[in-house]
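Ops channel
N.P.: pipeline sanity check, posting one input/output pair.
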């Protein structure tokens, strides 16, 4: 019965490790989507500003002062959007660092538990093998091996 418990712990640890990695992929996907959306929205806003700038120039081609003022305002807004996207990207990278640390901790913990479960199963198998060898006598190795296999099958 102890073998079944350790085997169950082993597979639970494998699932936990896999879940941690899948969660990391999901988080990276969400992060990439947020940054991509910010870039697309910034590009769309820049395109609209460029159209408005062209309209203003076509509406009054000789109003150089007004056009220059609008051009400076548009450039300022463009720089602001670029800084905002960069700020968001740095924020996402900081979140990624924190999430990566958490995922690695989960994976290491799951691997430690899997290793412990493997050691428990091995200890149980060798213990049963030793008991069978002792109970059957040292000279009868074939009978000991078949008895060990029977005991292992019964406990699984």
């Amino acid at each position: 019965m102890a073998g079944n418990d350790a085997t169950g712990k082993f597979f639970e640890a494998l699932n936990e490790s896999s879940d941690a990695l899948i969660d990391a992929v999901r988080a990276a996907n969400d992060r990439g989507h947020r940054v991509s959306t910010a870039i697309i929205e910034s590009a769309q806003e820049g395109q609209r500003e460029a159209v408005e700038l062209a309209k203003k120039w076509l509406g009054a081609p000789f109003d150089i002062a007004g056009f220059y003022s609008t051009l400076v305002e548009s450039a300022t807004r463009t720089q602001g959007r670029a800084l905002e996207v960069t700020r968001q990207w740095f924020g996402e990278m900081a979140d990624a660092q924190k999430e990566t640390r958490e995922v690695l901790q989960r994976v290491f913990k799951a691997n430690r538990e899997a290793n412990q479960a493997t050691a428990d199963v091995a200890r149980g198998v060798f213990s049963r093998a030793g008991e069978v060898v002792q109970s059957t006598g040292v000279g009868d190795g074939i009978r000991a091996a078949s008895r060990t296999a029977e005991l292992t099958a019964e406990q699984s």
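N.P.: looks fine end to end. Helices lie at 2-59, 64-136, 141-155.
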